[in-house]
Design brief:
about 35% strand, 15 strands, about 10% helix, Immunoglobulin-like, 2 domains, about 250 residues
Length: about 250
């Protein structure tokens, strides 16, 4: 074994030195080493004019005034506010608390602000700034033109909210977690149940504050199991057997 190892090592050394053994076992001459050519400087690159590319769109330097009128503010919205921002990019976000509005003789409330947005301006009422984009209670949009810097742009924002109770039918043991979604906006999320879903237990109805519109309760595993309801509504949302049925010995 030792002799084999020595032989392999010797042969590897011969290959490394590129010296071939003659017929009588003597080593031949070492092959000459070819020197690489000396380094050459690369040709000079052509010079390009270093000019800035034209901006895709110039930012408005003048501000436009927006007056937002809420015909009636529900009592459940104390401490809420209105957000305005660019509907296309989400930029120029401004939060306007309802407490800073000017009440009218007819019970309305007017909020006024300025914006540099030109184009589609989103106006959303929410319970807090972090919920304005995807957990709003009421939303509308208005077009701000290039000549809007002169006179205020008036925006009417009707607000209708309802504290909706979601309850189990008499024969059901429990239901959920269920995903609550808005039918006209796939990016809408509920304020307090976005991460874990809504779970309903016997004798403990779940109450959610929702704005006017159409909503759905959806099974997160089987999307065919769903229930639609409208807001505002006269009574509680009683879950259908589809959403309370036992599946694999578990609801």
């Amino acid at each position: 074994m030792l002799a084999a190892c020595v032989g392999v090592a010797g042969w590897a050394g011969l290959l490394a030195l590129r010296r071939d053994a003659g017929p009588d076992g003597s080593l031949g001459p070492i092959a000459p080493i070819v020197q690489p050519p000396p380094p050459q400087r690369l040709p000079a690159a052509p010079e390009f004019a270093r000019n800035a590319l034209p901006a895709a769109g110039s930012r408005a330097t003048s501000v436009a005034t927006v007056a937002i009128r809420i015909p009636a503010v529900p009592a459940a919205l104390r401490g809420a506010g209105v957000a305005i921002y660019d509907a296309r990019t989400g930029a120029e976000f401004t939060w306007l608390p309802l407490d800073g509005g000017e009440p009218g003789a007819d019970g309305s409330l007017t909020l006024q602000s300025t914006t540099r947005v030109r184009g589609d301006l989103q106006v959303a009422l929410a319970a807090a700034p972090e919920w304005a984009r995807h957990s709003y209670l009421a939303r509308t949009s208005v077009e701000i033109g290039p000549a809007a810097a002169g006179t205020p742009t008036l925006v009417d924002l009707p607000v209708v909210v309802d504290s909706v109770q979601i309850v189990l039918p008499d024969a059901a043991g429990r239901a959920g977690p269920l995903r609550l979604s808005r039918c006209d906006d796939a990016q809408w999320l509920p304020m307090f149940h976005a991460a874990t879903g809504i779970e309903i237990l016997p004798g403990a109805p779940t109450t959610v504050l929702l704005g006017a519109g159409a909503y759905e309760l959806v099974d997160p595993i089987d999307a065919t199991r769903r229930q639609r309801f409208e807001v505002p509504r006269a009574g509680a949302v009683v879950l259908t057997p589809t959403l309370t049925a036992v599946r694999a010995d578990r609801p």
